Amino acid sequence: MANMAQAIRMALHYAEENLGLTDVFGEDVGPPLGGVFTCTQGIQSAWNSPLDERGIIGMAIGLALAGQKPCAEIQFCDYIYNTIDLLKIAGNTCWSSNGDWNVPMIVRTPVGSGIRGSIYHSHSFDATATHIPGWKIVMPSTPLDAYGLLLAAVLEDNPVMYLEPKALLRIKGEELIPGEPADDKMLSKMIDAPLGERSKWKPQWPALEKYVVPIGKAKLVREGLHVTVVSWGRTLPLAAKAAKALAENEGIEAEVIDLRTLWPYDWEMVSASIEKTGKVLYVNEDTEVTNFGEHLIRRTIEDHFYKLLAPPRLLAGKFVPGIGLADNLEMASVPQLKDITDAIRALAAEQP
Amino acid sequence: MSRPRLVDRKEEKSSLGSLPAELLIRMHDLMVKARVLEERLIQMYKSGHGYFWIGGPGEEAFNVPLGLLMKKGQGPAYDYLHAHYRQSATLLALGESPIGALRQMKNTATDPYSGGRNFAGHFSKREWNIAPVSSPIEVQYAIAPGTALAQKRFGGDGITIVTGGDAGTAEGDFASCLIWSSRPGNELPILIIVTNNQWGISTAAATQHGEKHISDRGRAFNIRSRTIDGNDPVTSYLELKEAMEYVRKERKPFLLEAMVSRLYGHSSASGANFVGDEPDCIKSFEERLEAEGVLTRAEMDALRKKYTEEIAEMARQVRDEPQPDGASIYDHIYWEKK
User: Domain coordinates of chain A in residue numbers?
Assistant: First the structure.
């Protein structure tokens, strides 16, 4: 099965061939490197830009205004912060022109911890992104969803922020992308650029098919009766793993939802699950103060207060200025498997 | 042009004879119309028919020829304009009615640029490739290379025009524009304009900028550059025409710095009162038109009177138009397929 980086690459290829994607660009995105995480290797429309994040976002806005379909990359979301006012413009152009202009652009950026990236390669961006109206914000946790959400982003008429959990980029999926060969060694031979000299290399793309994950639809990863766990990105597979172990070993049945789209989010699915369990834990790794999970808690309280069996909980990154390099520092800063397991167990045990 | 020229033509007036009388009369007409519009907007602000005024009185001699020379239309075959908020004269020269600006000043639901959402002078008109003006200074310089790249690809002779003020060139977006417009092998068809009024709100440019001319910064990127007297409509017309022809044909960037005046201060925040110590481009143009027998004083007075009456009548009409409904705040957050 493809890993997430390969899935993104295949989606970009499918989109440039079939869906009118015109530009895949950013720092080191074009040949020879094809992206620091290899996500853009072999993409025809990929090109290298100056080392200028504001220039990258501005270029994407301009291309979109002129009818192109750009997908810009910010190499690490840690470096997207100096573009915030341009992101605001992309998000407000339709509204401030009273519906006259739209900005159909995509920004891809790797987010979060998990590669021992220290202070400037571990940031999250979901809390900040969800403060910018006018965007649609997605964050896959599997290669298949990465493929399907990226095709949806290309088909979208509005700006889409596509957050890539960098810890998951190298993780292989459990589901085949339509058209992907079943043998991953063969896939690697077909679409991974060789190390070293690669100027003559060309990918052999499999016969990919259209597969769209609609923006705004969450995914029920695991059914359960006792606790609802809502997560996205890096912490989602950890939540699923924790829930599986708790079910097998302790009889705690957690329902796990992968939100997938942060805005506009699938409240219908989350809400129905809270109705059923009466308990909800939100898990993500962005810093916990003014975290998007806090918004979801507000919504939970307003809509479900009288049916809740325990206070809604948030497990998120610690509110500290950065994620330190040393193993212990990173582990102490953002939720790990044990933290999630403990939080689910504790919530399941809470009695009114 | 064999090589980039950097000239300060402040003292050097082009002869009126370099342009046909018909064009001189048309430019004068539009300059007066734009000035009367701005003065009406200021008056609306002062009499409580708007919350804030910002605009371009003092830039008409440059902004009118710019509008006249633009290739107007929608899509990459036509010129894109990424303007700043002192550009009403360009819009009028393109053929826009002044009533839209009045509606935006009064923030009515009928405001054609933002539906009562944005300040005066914040134009937007997709039908003519006028990208929405936004208040952050200089962001348009980061965005403009995008439309220019689309046009480079498209071919034809459509170009991208971006304008901004001198103070904002201190922002990194101006450097971004120079870099992205001049990538070797990917030079862009973009006319980069700075209207230099030598002020950033209350701060004099000379106290903050060490470069002699802003246009000098183009030289580092091999961008053809020039500084011109933007208070002279004839010079402005001829220089803009030459620069635009170069960009249209060569598909390469050009940096044009136009020295202009700021006749009513930065905005209503600084009072919006006439300043007497800066050159007034309409006054000097009218003296020349009269001296060379193109127009008489009486004709010019009559023109101003005509526009004053027409625009006052429009302002009266706008005064009674409805404000946007509060419930409309959720409209157009996302694009609706048309």
Answer: 4-191, 219-349
